[in-house]
Design goal:
22% strand, homodimer, magnesium (chains A, B), 235 residues, 6 helices
């Protein structure tokens, strides 16, 4: 069985969320059931890019992960697109045999049995600014499938007040899920440099919202890779 | 019994290490047994500033924490200076009764029985560039006292290759302690703006060292508060 892969890169550090700062190899799956208005990975989402995606077996992928990491086990993050529309069970099984551990990032629209084999599952439901709507029954099914995971967290991107209120409601719905908020990034052109100060200002806005409201549940974090590399791909 | 307190501020977010991004009130103790060459908190270290420090009881401190957080429990980070030269046991006891949890950041030169009551203990031994030397027997005593903690981590600031090699040796010594590395900040004048790009470049240098070496144990993180607020105090 072949998997559609947009890119495999690293080791770099995880730039977001619960594993921020952790050395990671990324396996970015091609294809997505969502079309978020502000998607920063359209090259892994839009089927117009499908000719750039490789058809790879789990063994092929693992060989590339092994090559990039010189055979030294580390965290492999399966991202996308939405990786949950494909079957990464065998990849995870192969990698774990060699000591690698796996994280997966998905919006929570499709539940997979292989979630249970992950070390970390990051569910990132998309707020109103994305133009997508969350089906919480499907999200709940993802949570059920993730029962074997060491860590399950929720990560929400915040562009505006509406997203912020939506994130608060999501936290009330799932008070036991660790929550990570990050400011949205409206600058997603890989050929344009990122305005560092503007990115920091968006982070400051979100920090002040959260602390000013006395809402102490979420972690507030930037996209570190975006601060370091802008929207450059492969890092 | 009174405690020497340099400042109490927040809620803001934790800018460093294992709790990065977490809403936090900081209780910064006055006084330190170290004089690190690059200390960014000399106002809490040098006894020349002792007239700015307040003598506060644990009840006084807790009243201020409560006021700042509007009585909503959050993480209280006890930092310094070296907070471990004073007795924060009663503060922690009082705070925990109201649902607050406590983190403490210390170099690991003085062990305290109240370490066991913390949620998180961050031990940050100082690398050679600091001009200080670590007594690992004292560090080990801190670890012993921290046995009740939910999380004990090691955080090391890296200014140069010598620090980097030293951190690697520390990780070999304590392979089971989660390790956080952060690039050193040579710009510590609170009245001067921080050069954001230079700070990002130092982070990039450290990320490339770690990933290039295939050293996947440490998390590599910036000082987020420094990116957001520069060296401004009280945030």
């Amino acid at each position: 069985m072949k998997l559609r892969i947009s890119e495999i890169f690293g080791p770099t550090i995880q730039g977001e969320g619960a594993l921020i700062g952790k050395p990671t190899v990324f396996v970015r799956a091609g294809g997505c059931d969502y079309r978020c208005a502000w998607c920063d990975s359209m090259h892994a989402v839009d089927s117009a890019f499908r000719h750039d995606w490789a058809e790879m077996s789990a063994e092929d992928i693992m060989a590339e992960v092994r090559r990039l990491s010189s055979g030294r086990p580390l965290t492999v993050s399966i991202s996308g697109g939405n990786p949950a529309i494909q079957d990464f069970g065998l990849l995870i099984e192969l990698g774990k045999q060699e000591g690698y551990d796996f994280a997966c990032e998905t919006q929570g629209s499709v539940a997979q049995p292989w979630f249970a084999e992950l070390e970390t599952l990051v569910l990132s439901p998309k707020p109103p600014s994305s133009g997508e709507e969350t089906d919480w029954r499907k999200f709940d099914r993802c949570l059920e499938n993730a029962k074997g995971c060491n860590l399950v967290v929720m990560k929400i991107v915040i562009f505006d007040e509406t997203d912020y209120a939506w994130a608060k409601a999501a936290e009330e719905r799932y008070p036991n899920l660790p929550l990570y908020l990050q400011p949205g990034n409206p600058e997603v052109d890989p050929d344009q440099p990122v305005d560092l100060q503007a990115a920091i200002d968006r982070l400051l806005w979100l920090i002040e919202k959260v602390t000013g409201d006395g809402w102490f549940a979420p972690h507030v974090l930037p996209q570190l890779h975006m601060l370091v590399w802008g929207n450059k791909r492969g890092v």
